[in-house]
Every structure is written in structure tokens, then in C-alpha cells.
Amino acid sequence: MKLSEIQSALTSLDLESWLLYDFRGINPISQNVAGLTGLNITRRWFCLIPAQGEPHWLIHKIETSNFNDVPGKVSLYAGWQELNAEMKSLLTNVNTVAMEYSPNAAIPYVSRVDAGTLEWIRSYGVTVKSSAELAQYVEAPLTKAQFEGHQKSAYQVLQAKDYAFNWIGDQLKAGNTITEYDVQQEILKQFDEMQLTTEHPPIVAVNANSGDPHYAPNESRADEIKAGDYILIDLWAKQKDPDAVFADTTWVAYAGAIVPEKYEQIFEIVKEARNRAVAFIREKWAANEPIPAYTVDDCVRGYITEKGYGDYFIHRTGHNIGTVIHGNGANLDNLETHDARILIPGVCFSIEPGIYLNAFGVRTEIDVYLSAAAKDGVILTTAPVQNQVLTLL
Fold it and tell me: What SS3 class is residue 224?
């Protein structure tokens, strides 16, 4: 547990305390913050962390071996009556706690505490606030080692992307029959050779399949790739270390020598939307102005809408990136959710606008890291970025 960082964040956000809670893995945020990820804890546990002073744990008597090295005071319970009594004692003189919930489920990614538990805590006269900003302050900023590992993964993911597109071109030139699944498996082979791991096989989508943002081929469902086809590849991976951070990118290509205008036209709109997002963040960052995450989505979505394709941009502009591909920091989102969390130093996130038509879809995705130390501060880690549709023949 990074106690000093947690208490510093509580003070910065003017929060009295954080009440961590988990039951059988329903709250990975609490697990991560408490340093209990991966343990087989089968009973409810709580930890009250005040802005000042030591943590106070409340755990079941049969689970003590999982909490031998935790900092602070530990109280025990067995029966539900004892749990109620100990909880009352734990919350004595506590006015407010932060917990993993989001008012009106506005940000479901941090809504981990069930309604019944919230009712129970409130029954002691305690006000419950959302830990959404707090969790981001504690969980989302990358360490120096994590950032360096992310940069290495970004470089390798881009190499795997280059290999995949080159492999497609070579196979078509040789007259070989290949499918989306074949390409996907070639990418996974590259990940293995690079000692990378991923949560899900990459997206390789040809023609109309690219119009489905989360389409992914498998052994029994995969279209053939032929000359004259349009191809989208989205791939993400990280080093084989539980603390490593993912890199994530999406590129598009045409299996021919001259890209048809219909692909170029949509790509130019999506590219400009991506570039506007970067420019918007850089301008605000340089001026030391707060950047609510949803405002980046507004910038991107506004431009795509202005161009007449707002109804075809059907997902958020970007997601936080951490040790899991979709991390617990702020998402660039004012469509699926209204994410008003502020983009803070040390966070990494994707920018990935897209336009999805019936015949094809275009997405260009880059990763961005916000640094308090660098001169620019807004670092594109998956560089070089794509500036034109690739040609493969």
C-alpha cells in the first residue's frame, strides 16, 4: 500500500477518508490500492484510510493470514452481529468516506461497491463520496519504470504492426490465400518472439468487418484478404510483468498501389480529429489549465459531427491505459459516459477517433503520456503516427 501517496491525494482532493472494501474480487480498485491483488480472500474486508493517521482494517477471523503485513490497526469479526458492531466502531467520528461508486452510475468503471453496502455505510450517518478522482490519483500515474516499459512495448507493438502489413503484402504478391485469422496469428507469434503478452487477440478486420469496432476474427470466423481490400489492424500488448503497462495502436491499409478516394476521404477526417485532440491537450497543458477528460471527446466529436459523420462515431475518443488495457484513470468520453475527471500528470491514455460505415470503418489510434517533467509534457508514445492509408501492393 502506497500510504503516503494515498493520504497526499486525500488531502489534495479535500477528502476525509477512503473506505476500501472488497468481497470475492468485486472491487479490483480496492484490491490494487490495498496491495491484495491475486489473493484468495473469500470474506468481506474493509480498510479505513484517513487523510492523517494510520489505516484501520476490519477483516474476518479466518482471513488473518492474508493480512499479516498490512500497515495500521486490525480489527476482527466472525458473525454478522460482530461485523455490525465493529463497523460502528470503525466509523465513529467519521463524517465522510470515499468509496468506489459513481453517482447515478455516471462512470461505471469505478462503480464497484454494491448498493446494499452503500446503504449500510450510510446507515451509520456517514456521507459516501465517489473515489473516482482519488482512485485515478493513486492508481493511474505511471512510475518511471512503468513509463519506460510502456515506451518499449509501444515500439514493439508498432514493429508487430509493420510486420503484419508487410506479411499481408508479401503473401498477396506470392498469390497465397490468407485470412484475417492468419494475420492475427502472425501478430501473436510476433508478440511471443518479443516476449509480450496481451489480454485478447488483436483485431484484424477487412472491408465491412472494419465497420464493426470490436470485430475480431477467430478460427471459425474469418474473411479472406484479397488484392483491392481495405484492412484495419488494432493491436495491444505489454511486457510479461504484472506491473507492466500496455501499448495500444490502430492502423489501416489498402491492399493495392493507389488508395481509393472513399478511404482517403474518411481517413483524412479521422486523422484531423485525432490531431485536433492532441493540439487541444497541448494547448491546455502548456497553459496549465485543467483538462476535464470529456472536453477532449467534445473537441473530437464536434469536428467529426461538423463533417457530417457524428452518427458514425459510436464510441468514446479514448481510454485510460494501465497494467490492464482499460485502466482506472479518466477516459476521453462524453458519449458513453460523462467523464469529468481531470487529466493529471503521469497518466497514459489512447486517442482513437473512428468513423464506421456499412462498407468499411476507419480508426486511427495513438497513445499519449502526460509528463510533469518533460518540456513539452504531452508525449506521443506510439510514434510515428499514421498520416496516410498504407498501400501494400
Answer: strand
CA 185 to chain centre: 24
Identity of residue 339: D
Cell of 333: 468520453
- Could you report the per-residue pLDDT of 131-184, keeping only the tens digit for each? 999 999 999 999 999 999 999 999 999 999 999 999 999 999 999 999 999 999
Q: How confident is the model at residue 305 (pLDDT cuts 50, 70, 90)?
A: very high
pLDDT tens track for 63-85:
999 999 999 999 999 999 999 99
Q: Which of 322, 319, 340, 341 is nearest to 250 (CA)?
A: 319
DSSP code for 268:
H
CA dist 29 → 40, 268, 329 (Å) = 16, 39, 11
Collapsed DSSP state (helix, strand, coil) of residue 131: coil
Count the Cβ atoms, other than its own, within 10 Å of residue 376: 10
SS (HEC) of 105-117: HCCHHHCCCCHHH
The string of DSSP codes covering 11-72 is HHTT-SEEEEEESTTS-HHHHHHHT-TT----S-EEEEEESSS--EEEEEGGGGGGGTT-SS
Do 136 and 98 form a contact (C-beta atoms < 8 A)? Answer: no
Checking phi first, is residue 242 left (phi over 0); if not, alpha (psi -120 to 50) or beta? alpha
pLDDT at 310 over 90: yes
**For residue 377, what is its C-alpha cell?**
509534457
| Confidence (pLDDT) at 373 | 80
